[in-house]
Amino acid sequence: MNTIISQFKSKEQKLKKKPNSYVNKYLFLTNDEARVKCALRYLIQKKTRIPIAAALKDTKKGIRIVESANKKGESVSWITLHDLYTMGVLYALPKSDELARAYANRSGALYTGRLLKDAVLDITRAFDIGVPDDAKSKLYCRMAKCYLALDRKLSDRAKKTLDLAREYLDKIDNANRRAEMEQTINNARSNYTRSRPYPKFDYSRILPNIIDENPKIKRASNAIEIQYSEEFGRHIVATRDIEPGETLVVHQTYASTLWPGWMESYCWNCSKRVWAGVACNQCTNVIYCDLYCLHMAWAKHHEIECRIIASLKQNNRYFAQDLLALRLAVRTFIEAGDFSKLKKKIAEIEEEQDPLAKILDEDGVFDEKRFASYYTASRKTSSSFKNALRAVVMSYFLAKQTEIFSNRSATLDSLLNNKRFVSMSALILRYIEIIKTNNCNVNVNGDNNLQMSRGCIFNPLINYFNHSCDPTAYLIVAGELSSVVTLQGIKKGEQIFLCYSFPFLKLPQRHRRMLLSKYSITCKCLACKLDRGPDFKNLLLVHKMTPVPEKLRNDFILLATTYKDESVYYTPEFPGRELHLSVTLQMMKLCQELHTEYTKNFFSLKERLMNIYSCYGR
């Protein structure tokens, strides 16, 4: 993808000087089908070769990876070994001996890392496929040690498993290995350690809940409504006074993707961290929590995208956004059933002129899962010829690697008159431009608590919260769930804002301006108006400090002395989270009641809330 875009960019300035060039013609086109046809004609004229790639199962490569991990042994960390064995799982054929071997080896890394339930899961999978008799003693013994370390109540199960391990001792031909294994089995009950399990959290379980459901917006609080204006477009407004810490939205993310480098460690369906994952049966691109997630993803989108991810991924700096746009287009097509029904749906939506009526059902209710909700998401139609090129290239991958257009032998020339190809390309172009201004990055905390993006999500309702570098609410993404909670009190009738880049408390203005211009976003917060960054907090009315009330004083002092290093907020096992959150929210409420907003104290409390909420999502 980058090669095609780079070749175009190298000629772009010359093309702009030619009145009849495709680049200049593109500027005057008024619909997406005409735009993608223009881009397609350009590719045909340049006789562009679009490279196709495939990520197929490769038994030999999988064996090499597993053997290299075995040689590394204790010289590398258990996580490194785990990741290598996971690659072995990805490359192995379904139900093959190589897959069983990769599961068995990965269980050892998981046992070392104290992910004991996951280790048992991998051992069970290995046995289900089939394990050589001479390897069974070792695996049964490891399983027994997992049971013993997990819970004393499992000691009977551990004893039976150790008995099974003894039954297969005579299958080990090497006398020394057999003696070592027998000793390990005999010592298993006395040498195990009930160590603390590796901290693995399901963050979706600790997300705050909505108190009062909104009858007009599904899965949202009745404290908000969607309004429209020429200045702000569709936006979210408070219908009553809202307190700090209230939950406004809890939605299942409609569409999400991962960046390369994260696709082997996070579930392709639900976006949760995976340790004992299962691979797609067809490709080597992605991993899943279990067979349920695998089947769900296959039904929703992966049956089609499976074959083209490798083509899309090669040398593509837009990969996550492009895949998100493609996924929306694929889901749109699957849910519609065929192209004629899809065109009929689009025509019905475009007939409606009222911006709010467009997104509501017959009963006047907003449901983010309806086609109209995401098809009508805000879009700034770009004059960028590159977007149309990207859309055509993605549709070409679909044409050459799937049956969606029923002709895998099609050429660029023949596709020019293929109505379904042009319709799909136009739909992808629309979603590329929607995603550009509506996707949200999902960050995880890496080494030294540095935020790293693992992927991006698209959720129609959440995108109606406009941007501010001084947000009044915070977006939490936990696996496949997204939640919006307030950072401060909000008055009835006030607009509610999220931050889609970095708040002014964390990033200087010039860096924020660059990020916002990239996504065509403007901000009118006070810090942006005054051209300020993190230093703005220190220039405010420092002397207006909020007094700590008597009922909070002991907790406040305890937290202030115990958790001086704020990096503890980022750790999943942060023990003071609930107490710290409760005290900070009460202090924020008091701060606003005493009219001490826009003080150093006010922004310190807001920053602390952001840090605490960052623990809720991964």
From TrEMBL:
Keywords carried by this UniProt record: Metal-binding, Methyltransferase, S-adenosyl-L-methionine, Transferase, Zinc, Zinc-finger
Domain SET: 222-501
GO CC annotation terms, alphabetical: cytoplasm; nucleus
InterPro entries listed in its UniProt record: SET-MYND_domain_protein, SET_dom, SET_dom_sf, Znf_MYND
MYND-type domain residues: 267-306
GO biological process, one term: methylation
Matching SUPFAM superfamilies: HIT/MYND zinc finger-like, SET domain
Molecular functions per Gene Ontology: histone deacetylase binding; N-methyltransferase activity; protein methyltransferase activity; S-adenosylmethionine-dependent methyltransferase activity; zinc ion binding
Pfam families per the UniProt record, alphabetical: SET (PF00856)
Domain of life: Eukaryota
Name listed for the protein in its UniProt record: Uncharacterized protein
The organism of origin for this protein: Microctonus aethiopoides
